[in-house]
Amino acid sequence: MIPREVFAETLLQFFGPVRPYLEDPSVTDIMINGPDQVYVERKGRLELTGVRFESREALTAALRNAAQFAGKHVDEERPILEGRLPDGSRIEAVLPPAAPDGPHVSIRRFFRETLTVEKLINFGSLTPDAASALHAIVASKCNVVVAGGTGSGKTSMLNALASYIPEGERVVVIEDSRELQLQRQHVVQLEARPPDRKGRGEVAIRDLFRATLRLRPDRIVVGEIRGGEALDLVQAMTSGHGGCLTTLHATYPRDTLTRLETMAMMSDVEMPLVAIRLQIASAIQFIVQTSRVQDGTRKVTHISEVRGYDLATSAYTVQDIFLRRFDGVGQGGEVLSDIVPTGIMPDTLPVLHEHGMDLPRSVYDAAKRASGRSA
After folding, report:
1. Is 341 left (phi over 0), alpha (psi -120 to 50) or beta?
2. Beta strands 171-175; 187-191: pairing state
3. Of the listed ranges 12-21, 53-62, 275-284, 326-335, the one predicted with least confidence
4. Which of 108, 109, 226, 315 could be joined to 90 by an S-S link, Cβ 3.0–4.6 Å?
């Protein structure tokens, strides 16, 4: 068997044209559109590079080696590759015939240095008060969904929120492909596995979730909800497993709940839609919405509380506790914004107090100003 280190070095040689970008800490994504066009993303902005692969065959050979490293196989019958490179970076590729002008490849860089809450504050993604509110929410074992579009910083935010879990708690992490880097002592990492060429050996997220419930977790962290496991997570949240954290793709907080509905219905469990909605509304306490704004930076735009589901109007009741206010564009093209308290006090405030936590003073001050205006 070839030693992993030798295999990793050989694979990087196949990706020689883009290797400098794989080793550049300022690059977050590498996009290869066939052998002759390579883009990279730095600070949220795309740049066309001057590098190219020698031929379509050379790029295909690199992807076949990447597939072998990931324990997968790509050919005309299986033209899609999803896996990881030796450094942990995530690779997604679509080869001909599914991509006639391809192969098309996207590499999401893996950074060993975790983005901490302090760094997110320095980047302007959060304010100290918003971070303090999130600390209280997570420490009080509220169930939180981090939602946002592709590349909006969901995983980084999930890592940051997990740092607020009190030490002494057992955290079980479930992922399709390992990305989370929880800086904690007691973490159990579980990773799904696709089937082999003969359809054997698959370990799905749902399988891992069922096993997790018997691993005595204090907290369950699911890297991303994509399908029927949504119902498993929601039912765990409503049956005593508080403080769960997860991410999913959604544009606004209300969309997050309807997306959860859709994915819960992918389950093999037959349930009336209204029952699913009531369980979702009971399970999720807060939604943290992330977004990549016009200047390429990643921001938290909403910290919203889910209050319940209104049967009369067939709608979820959601209220924003913090909301990003946009104030135009600066001289350097940067978007000027700030995330501020809305003046609404969350219904879960007594739960925070029961856990010895509280919201920052600015939330109370905003509530007083709001009540003065309404008087």
Report:
1. beta
2. parallel
3. 326-335
4. 108
Looking at the predicted structure, is the pLDDT value of residue 211 above 60?
Answer: yes
Specify the amino acid at residue 91.
Answer: I
Q: Where along the chain do its domains lie?
A: 11-108, 117-374
pTM of the complete model: 0.86
Count of helices and strands (H, E) across the chain: 12, 15
Chain segment 95-135, per-residue pLDDT in tens? 999 999 989 999 998 776 677 899 999 989 999 999 999 99
Strand partners, 249: 148
Distance of CA 342 to the CA centre of its chain: 25
Architecture of domain 11-108: 2-Layer Sandwich (3.30)
Q: Which of 337, 335, 180 is nearest to 246 (CA)?
A: 180
pLDDT of residue 113: 67
Q: Which two tokens stand for residue 205?
A: 């997220």
Q: Does domain 117-374 have CATH number 3.40.50.300?
A: yes
Among the ranges given (176-190, 292-306, 308-322), the one the predictor scored with the smallest mean pLDDT: 176-190
Q: How far apart are CA 257 and CA 351, in angstroms?
A: 22
Query: Which candidate, 218, 237, 220, 222, places its Cα nearest to that of 170?
Result: 218
| Helix runs in 15-127, H state only | 19-22, 56-69, 117-122
